[in-house]
Amino acid sequence: MPKGMASVTTFSLMLQFLFFILCSSFGQLSLAFTSQEYHEALEKSILFFEGQRSGKLPSNQQQTWRGDSGLSDGSSYHVDLVGGYYDAGDNVKFGLPMAFTTTLLAWSVIEFGSSMQDQLENARAAIRWSTDYLLKAATTTPDTLYVQVGEPNMDHRCWERAEDMDTPRNVYKVSATNPGSDVAAETAAALAASSIVFRDSDPSYSSKLLQAAIKVFNFADRYRGSYSDSLNSVVCPFYCSYSGYHDELLWGASWIYKASGINTYIQYIQSNGHILGADDDGYTFSWDDKRPGTKILLSKEFLEENSEEFQLYKAHADNYICSLMSGTPGFQAQYTRGGLLYKGSESNLQYVTSTSFLLLTYAKYLNTNGGNVVRCGTSAVTGENLVTLAKAQVDYILGNNPTKMSYMVGFGERYPKHIHHRGSSLPSIHAHTQHISCNDGFQFFHSASPNPNILVGAIVGGPDNNDNFSDDRHNYQQSEPATYINAPFVGALAYFSANPPTTY
């Protein structure tokens, strides 16, 4: 038996045994979802973004309970900021999570677009709705990036439809004197990743995105600072940059290199990597912390070229994977009794979807390049092991869990009906044409009735650490959807729609 084979086999059997016990506890020992069901979930996960659209809606809008909104955004500041996405259940356009959402949607298409079939164009449309807005935000004024529309404290005191909102539509920006390297570098990453998506289908648009990415990255790097310091109470505590801006600078440079192939960005990564977090292990991938994603993205260079300059990133990517694998020396993740990765009480599924995407992406990189493995002490973790763990998380979200509830709205027989989302919970503008004011909307917020408008495809915050879920509008920690929960799930669902396992 070749060296290392015993540890691979032992770990694989152990993982399969644990997975067997997990499935037994759910009473399901056969395939939970078919390829068609994964594809249905994929379609709905993309359709969700239509319900988050701001601006003038197109004629092919499928979430028809929505109407036009935010049509004068930016006008009082003499800038066009119409469009983009509302981040979650409110009516504010936050630049940092919007840009991260866009990067992850683009990465989903880059890695798994070939598996999306008839949904590829819908995925591109979801990306373009954001990039059209980000282009305006990034290129309108020199050395300026518009990063937010809407006064969040006022917005959060109201419960009203986006079509009715009468709260201040203040515009916030970062500049040379008030820097925001985190939000600017994430915007650069979003534009660069998206330029790869449109490279073949719309070369001129792709070029425009890449040039804007380079410009906004240079701005982020030249004027360094955190946007949380510059904008303070209008971004904190909503999307405060807790991890700082170093991770975004490395992330942004990595995506521009991927999109452009310009060696200047390799040199930047080499020269600045140690300062910007290349030596740090990160175990949570989110709109705030990009370290695990960057390590996995750059590890592809090592796997493809066996390049010594990227060896560090492969080592840290392996550390991240080992942290998720029960029974290995590096294990430090927490899972519920039902098998769900658990990171925090507020919107936990954002970490589950982002982790699942990274697991599948890294499995692809490992398998594409000679069947490489991840070394966790004496254990060797294969790409197949990563897929198995990712599938457990994806299936949990879709309904293979102790509550037998799908956490994707509109998927399956049982899903959340009282989600924390203004547009979903208030009567549609088409059904109730009269204006519903800031305070009058709370009668619908406090109502025990199900939401009248189904936000198809929305993934909510999810259950607690005991696998319990409260389908309650008041419990925003569990019942609020967000764009950055859905974005990485698009890629994961695309993978399984084309590669459904035959058995547990």
Automatic annotation (TrEMBL):
Pfam families, per the entry: Glyco_hydro_9 (PF00759)
Tree of life domain: Eukaryota
Positions of the catalytic residues: 420, 471, 480
InterPro entries linked to this entry: 6-hairpin_glycosidase_sf, 6hp_glycosidase-like_sf, Glyco_hydro_9, Glyco_hydro_9_Asp/Glu_AS, Glyco_hydro_9_His_AS
UniProt entry keywords in alphabetical sequence: Carbohydrate metabolism, Cellulose degradation, Glycosidase, Hydrolase, Polysaccharide degradation, Signal
Broadest EC class assigned to this enzyme: hydrolase
Listed GO biological process terms: cellulose catabolic process
Reaction equation(s) it catalyzes: Endohydrolysis of (1->4)-beta-D-glucosidic linkages in cellulose, lichenin and cereal beta-D-glucans
EC number of the protein: 3.2.1.4
All copies of domain Glycoside hydrolase family, residue ranges: 38-493
Family affiliation: Belongs to the glycosyl hydrolase 9 (cellulase E) family.
Protein name: Endoglucanase
Organism whose genome encodes this protein: Glycine max (Soybean)
